[in-house]
Design a protein that fits this description.
The complex is a heterodimer of chains A (155) and B (154). With 155 residues, chain A is mainly alpha-helical. Chain A has seven helices and no strands. Chain B has 154 residues and is mainly alpha-helical. In chain B, α1 packs across α5.
Chain lengths: 155, 154
């Protein structure tokens, strides 16, 4: 469907995302956060009894949502993987995977240490009026912007 | 079971929205972080604004959650060093991969196989954090619980 290939207007997408936070709070009284979903899987594995909680199901929902979109829209609109695959070409292409693994470690460890990621702190925490989340959000946005410009200057 | 089904349904809406708004694409994220496009900031800002208003309407109208016996009200934390240090680490990883935990999951759903590497790193980072906490937190306490609750009423 062609309509799905056009980026959804921010003034529709944003409020829908915000209502997801409200829905989780209203229906089950919890703070929506995606990192918690991954954490739920890790915790259940390390506890040696497989039983993911609602956070894990939220994550499964996201994966299914992505799959549903891809099935209807007919796959993603981009090829390769951003600056990584345009910078590391030919023989150096093998570096992309380890770089993504390292980035993933930073994302996972950092989000846990900060008490949330873009959704837990950025979306849910700030809208709850948590000063800790506001500080975290300003910090990770500022850092990500600085690192992006740094990468742009180096490549 | 109700909580899990609810989370699954909300997660699907969240996932379709992240996909449809292009958040799955590292190019879209990178253009935002390099100030080439305002979309991400407008999208994020309107999401926070909607949630901010919605949560307050909810709190004024209800005491308990609809589907489970839990309070709707919440507590908030005061900023501490770990919020800042963690966010610097997180922001660095975010800028390298141009994806955060939500979009990484929708990438997997869309069949963008690069996400498998990011997810491998992500769960490793979480496991390292939880292992570190288990060593400093007395036995019996739940792993992954937020650090020292300096909770104040929100």
């Amino acid at each position: 469907m062609a309509v799905l290939h056009e980026q959804l207007a921010w003034y529709i997408g944003g409020p829908v995302l915000g209502l997801c936070v409200v829905a989780i709070r209203a229906l089950i009284g919890e703070r929506l956060g995606i990192t918690g979903g991954y954490s739920s899987f890790v915790e259940s594995v390390s506890a040696s009894r497989f039983g993911i909680d609602w956070r894990g199901f939220l994550l499964i929902g996201l994966i299914v949502g992505g799959a549903v979109y891809a099935l209807i829209a007919g796959g993603p609109d981009f090829h390769g993987y951003g600056w990584l695959t345009t910078t590391f070409t030919g023989d150096s292409r093998v570096l992309v995977a380890p770089i993504l693994v390292v980035a993933g470690v930073l994302i996972g460890f950092g989000a846990k240490l900060a008490g949330g990621c873009t959704s837990g702190n950025g979306l849910s925490g700030t809208s709850m009026g948590s000063l800790a989340s506001v500080v975290a959000t300003v910090t990770f946005f500022a850092t990500a912007i600085a690192v992006s410009f740094l990468i742009e200057a180096v490549i | 079971m109700r909580a899990r089904f609810t989370a699954l349904a909300v997660g699907m809406v969240f996932g379709v929205t992240l996909s449809w708004t292009g958040m799955t694409s590292p190019n879209v994220i990178r253009d935002a972080l390099l100030f080439k496009s305002a979309y991400l900031f407008l999208f994020f800002g309107s999401a926070v604004a909607t949630s901010f208003v919605g949560l307050r309407i909810l709190r004024a109208r209800r005491e308990r959650a609809v589907l489970v016996d839990r309070p709707v009200r919440w507590t908030v934390e005061r900023p501490q060093r770990h919020h800042i240090v963690g966010s610097v680490v997180f922001g660095t990883g975010w800028a390298i991969a141009d994806a955060c935990p939500g979009p990484i999951a929708t990438q997997l759903g869309q069949g963008i196989w690069w996400s498998v590497f990011t997810i491998a790193g992500l769960v490793t980072g979480i496991a390292v954090y939880l292992r570190g906490r288990r060593q400093v937190v007395p036995a019996g306490e739940r792993p992954g619980a937020p650090a020292e609750p300096s909770a104040v009423r929100g």
